[in-house]
Design brief:
single chain; 290 residues; 2 domains; 20% helix; alpha+beta; Tumour Suppressor Smad4; 17 strands; 6-stranded antiparallel beta sheet; Rossmann fold
Length: 290
């Protein structure tokens, strides 16, 4: 089996876990390749891995699986490495919350055994793409979680004009607007009052960020809709985000959002499912009085 691995900076408390993962994979005869950025981190922390190396932009279509080490941010970054190749992803959580990277450090060996024995299914998640008259994000114009328009150079509100399939929806007087996929409904959108949406619901969620008019609420629309946005405000510069990757744009730009023509394939092991993740990560059913 050929496996690619990507991770981010880690502290000493995680080093032993990461070394153990590489040792397990090597003992199983897995052919390993790590990202160039993670390779530097491993060398700096003296983690022995004896792996090949790839750079972002290389075609990863020949890999059987992709392992991420970190939190959800690491997995989201890995999605930009994988792109349209749809290599299945297994997220090992060495970070904090972990809605996407759900494998606990204590479960690594059992999870790797399930991976190698192919005892798993696929959880296919839709992505969104951003199209503009300018080339933004170096061609990595897609996101698994969300797209956002945010104010930048002022504390004043901005105005985001939103259209669905060419029809005017609303002018949002707010700090910004988020368009989330169902996967991203548990992220930034949720923190701004957006609803939780099941992963395969085939929707987009449009959520205003601190709207001036409190009657303006999040709205759920079909993901076969084409969304477009223009921006107005007291300054000329605004922030646009795709899964926390940022670009600065001006008020001449039109931002178009639609569903991507490829998906992210998350490896779903036998003991994991979406509802279990919700209960664990959001502490549903827990009461400190009991």
């Amino acid at each position: 089996m050929k496996v690619a691995i990507h991770g981010k900076k880690f502290d000493g408390s995680v080093k032993e876990v990461i070394q153990s993962l590489f040792d397990i994979l090597k003992s199983k005869g897995v052919e390993l390749t790590v990202s160039s950025t993670f390779s530097e981190i491993l060398e700096k922390n003296r983690v022995s891995h004896d792996s090949g190396m790839y750079k972002k932009g290389d075609n990863l279509g020949g890999f059987d699986a992709f392992i991420t080490l970190g939190g959800d941010g690491t997995l989201l970054e890995a999605v930009t490495h994988i792109g349209k190749t749809e290599v299945p992803i297994l997220g090992i959580n060495t970070g904090r919350l972990g809605f996407l990277a759900t494998i606990a450090k204590e479960s690594i060996e059992g999870s790797i055994n399930e991976l190698l024995e192919q005892n798993y299914g696929y959880d296919e998640r839709s992505l969104l793409t951003l199209n503009t008259q300018d080339r933004l994000f170096n061609g990595y114009n897609f996101a698994l979680n969300d797209f956002a328009i945010l104010k930048k150079d002022t504390s004043s509100m901005i105005v985001v004009n939103a259209y669905i399939n060419g029809e005017f929806l609303n002018s949002y007087w707010a700090d910004g607007v988020i368009v989330a996929t169902p996967t991203g409904s548990t992220g930034y959108s949720m923190s701004c009052g957006g609803p939780l949406v099941l992963p395969h619901s085939e929707n987009f969620i449009i959520t205003p960020v601190s709207p001036h008019n409190l009657t303006v609420r999040p709205i759920v629309v079909p993901d076969n809709s084409e969304l477009s946005f223009t921006i107005e405000g007291r300054t000329n510069n605004y922030l646009v985000a795709l899964d926390s990757r940022l670009e600065t744009v001006d008020d001449t730009i039109t931002l178009n959002i639609k569903k991507a023509d490829f998906k992210a394939r998350l490896i779903q092991l036998s003991d994991n499912n979406y509802f279990k993740t919700l209960r664990q990560k959001l502490n549903w059913g827990l009461d400190v009085r009991n």
